[in-house]
Amino acid sequence: SKGWQVVSSAPPPLRPPSSWPGRGQGVEAARWPGAMPPEPARWLVVGGVDKGGILVRRGQAIGSAAHAERLSTGAVVSELERTEGGRLHYSLESGTGPPEGWVSLKAGEKELLVPHGPPPEPPTPAGGGLPAPPSADFAAVQHGDPPDHVRVWAVSDIHTDKKENKAWVSGIDERKYLDDVLILAGDVSNSWEELEATLRDLKSRFARVFFCAGNHDLWVRKKDGEDSVAKLRRILQLCKDLGVEVLPSEVRAASGRLLVVPLQAWHHPQWDTEPDLDEWKAPRPLHQSVSDYWLTSWPGSVSIQDGSAAKLVDAINDEVFDMEELLKFRSEQDAVLSFSHFVPRLEANPEKRYLIPPCLAKAVGSNYLRARMERLRPDVHVFGHTHFGYDLEVEGVRYVQAALATPGERQFGGSLVALDGFPVLAPQPVLVWDSREGWAPKRRSAWSDYYTRYGRRPEVTNVVPSVVADASGLAPAAKNCQGGFLAGRAPIWMFGPLEHRLMEAQKDLETLHHRLATEAAAEPKAKGAKDGDSRDEPRVVRSIAAKKLLSQGRCVFVDVREDAEAPRGGCRIAGSVALPHPAKTHALAGLPDEELLVLCERINALGGGLVVYGEDSAAEDVRVAALLLAAFFRYWPNEVQILHGGIQAWIKTRGEVEQVG
């Protein structure tokens, strides 16, 4: 049932609540006897990004003595006095710098401070009552007995402006989670109406919903005259009105308790410190490739590019809760879960060679977020944004991403999105904590398991998968550029959960069967080019050329004869990988995990250079097997070669063979 509520144990504030985002749910400031005068004007520091803040002087005059410490970018100050000449006497509210002093509002035409609106105060937790001021205890007081059993679930990137995603959310059981908690890690919708409707819907299905904003949530329209910071504040007000929680708080049950910490954040390019793909030329720079650059708006001179937008959004955390008090409270906790929309660590994001386009690596993470996490030291951190399933431990912290993603991503890259059966085969949020059992067991996820097995190689910048290069419009800018994958590694999707692997392999098979049926119905001249003049067709290599490739260590032979594992002739090309077609090619994705990975590592031993062969009399079967291998290994078909004349031609040219059996 939903008969339990959590409210703060803190005393009422000493001044009337403001309108953003109001203290005291259901209590208006006008009803307070002896209401105090209006709050002083507040200002946000947006200048000094490259200097560690702006200069502060001890007196009004420009020539007065300067403080040694600067007023940090992102700091918020209260106005004590302002002159017609644009000098501001301030008192520090948040950020770092002298607690009081004089600053200039502008340097020439460049704004150093911009108006910041009314003073922020924490939203009321679900259940009403007066919430804590920023320095108050984060412990919860129960109205009535807490449930015996509470579970905490997580999901991100639900994008309910897409009808398939909205249907997925609507399909969440209306009664199953009424004692449970949902972590919603951003990206609901850029539509205000859809955002509100979705939050209301989820709040009706869960006892408590925690939320942080994602980049799509902060997209704005120029005609509305609102910047993204103002929209974030309006979202926090909406959450307060709906009882959706954006403050750190305890989740309590009779069988256990958990501290949940939402963290607002924004991305900045300085977070990405791994080498760029300098051997490749991209068609567009970052600010023309990532839609956040033109679909968000920021006050004054704040921008995404220089990191000031990320710093500004991070500073809002200090406005709505006291980090020092939180750290004191955290020290008493046995279980802590933090969450954000953006990525705290590089290890929780694929290397840029796998991203479309690669510059997306500069639009996913925040150093400010990571710094908060390192101080907080959570057990688990839930994040979103990249739409990749993750369950990975780094330096004692478990990082989990459970992104619903887009319908297209679920259909064509489901294994990369999945965490076990989520989100397709198990259409519900992902369990992260159970008050009786503790943290949920680790889940299977392609990227996490891929990097656990192989580690990262960001220094390899000349090798990019052909599909990534083509989709991103990358052009080789150096002689050592190579389209393909790192040698000796299995395809990433092969690390996905078995059920998703099978689904993805079945789609590849269906696509191939459709192609073959289309070819069979076409006029002979319209069928696939057998001479390899198309990217969509395997190339043909003759035995003499194949022998040269083999001597240079530039090819891997794959024997796709029906009896490849025990050939009737008793021999195969030396060093071949046996992959009987269709018995094993069709069943490849369903092999036991370790057998599958070892086999794929052998096939991809050189990162490409596959030469597929069979019987001379079964040339079309060999072609079909080559097309299927290209699909499974994410090559373009013309990156796979077919040995002309099969093993018979190889033997005739006295190519090296090995005896089998």
From TrEMBL:
Signal peptide: none annotated. Residues 10-19, 116-125 have a biased composition (Pro residues). It holds the Pfam family Metallophos. Gene3D superfamilies: 3.60.21.10, Rhodanese-like domain. It comes from the Eukaryota. Residues 1-34, 114-137, 518-537 are annotated as: Disordered. Residues 551-659 form the Rhodanese domain. One of its GO terms (molecular function) is hydrolase activity. This is Rhodanese domain-containing protein.
